[in-house]
Amino acid sequence: MKRFLPLCCLLWAPAVLALQSLEGNPATIPPSSSKTTIIPVPKSRFERYIDKVFANADSNQDGMINFSEVYELVLKIYVQLNRQAPVPAPSRETVMQVYNNSDKNKDKYLTRDEFGVLVKVVSKRAFIRVTTMKLMKVVGAPLLAEYLIRTLAGKKWLSELAATLVPAQYQEKVLPVISSRGFCRAVLIVLFVVTLGNFVLGIVDMILTMMSAAEEKSDTK
User: Fold this and answer.
1) pLDDT tens, 189-213?
2) If we measure between CA atoms, which residue out of 95, 93, 98, 88 comes closest to residue 133?
3) For the chain, what is the mean pLDDT?
4) Are 193 and 135 in contact (CB under 8 A)?
5) How far apart are CA 69 and CA 119, in angstroms?
6) How far, in Å, CA of 177 to CA of 169, rounded?
7) For the segment 65-110, what is each residue's pLDDT rounded down to a tens digit?
């Protein structure tokens, strides 16, 4: 038993020191060492992504980028986003407003930290816009299409309009197709996504711009 206790202490000592470091308690430093080693906190994946994008945009490696470089990066981001949803890129004026808000020292250039602020704002806007477009596509447009189909079902004038638009020689084959519920729903969903989707995005952009302006006023006070 007397031999077993020293062996246990020897085995448990590294684990105790590791737990102390995790809890924020400083481990015992050997007397020969007088310097404290500071271990840097690893950056998140998002921060590393910002570093990489900023380094690629900073062509002359002076630690600053201008508006043209930023706007080009925003357009590239939206090229990737359009693989998820057909969301148009923000206007040059909108990006300029975010750019000016991120430029804290007002020198017309963005440092790495200022660029990080801009990327977070742009990413937030992009997420909201993509989510809005997806909700419109998955929920809003189908519900509106179904409501319109049920409202117009059995309307005589609608059948007469279709017969007028389709040539007589094609009516036998075409009219049953275009008057079917599935065909009408598909056409209406596409129509609503294209037209109402852009309209809703315009409202979302207006709200985001108003929120950004309010935040800027609160920061200046």
Assistant:
1) 888 888 887 788 788 878 877 877 7
2) 88
3) 76
4) no
5) 13
6) 15
7) 899 888 988 888 888 777 777 777 888 888 898 898 888 888 889 9
- State the alpha helices, DSSP H only, in 58-180: 67-81, 92-102, 112-135, 141-152, 156-165, 171-178
Calculate helix-pair angle for 92-102, 67-81, nearest 10 degrees: 120
Quote the CA–CA distance of 166 and 158 in Å, as a whole number: 12
Closest CA to 190 of 86, 120, 44, 119: 86
Q: Are 98 and 114 in contact (CB under 8 A)?
A: no
pTM of the model: 0.57
In the chain, the amino acid numbered 89 is: A
Written as six digits, the tokens of 40 are 């840097």
Length of the chain in terms of residues written = 221
Q: Which residues contact 78 (CB under 8 A, 6 or more apart)?
A: 87, 88, 89, 90, 126
Q: CB of 74 within 8 A of CB of 126?
A: no
Burial 124-140 (b: 16+ CB within 10 A, else e): ebbeebbebbeebbeeb
Query: Is 142 or 20 the better-scoring residue by pLDDT?
Result: 142
**Contact partners, residue 90, CB within 8 Å, separation at least 6:** 74, 78, 125, 205
- Taking residues 150-164, what's their average pLDDT? 81
